[in-house]
Specification:
single chain, alpha+beta, four-stranded mixed sheet, 30% helix, 27% strand
């Protein structure tokens, strides 16, 4: 999994169990390897959000402030 904006991956890692933290990868470095993207529903440039939606077209959940997408 990865998160957008990229700095938010630190928050994701914080809440994961220590054994699962390696599953959270940096968006900038390797987002194409992620099977799931956690996308903030605001504060992300429209062109970046559109590209992510194109690469990850399936919406798994829409929560307050976060959209969960997969390929």
């Amino acid at each position: 999994m990865t998160a957008v904006p990229a700095y938010s991956i630190s928050v994701v890692r914080y809440y994961l169990a220590p054994a699962g933290r390696e599953r959270a990868i940096d968006f900038v470095r390797a987002h194409r390897d992620a099977s799931v993207v956690l996308l903030r529903d605001h504060g992300v440039a429209p062109d970046v959000a559109a590209a992510i939606h194109q690469d990850y077209p399936v919406e798994l959940a829409k929560l307050r402030g976060v959209i969960v997408l997969r390929r």
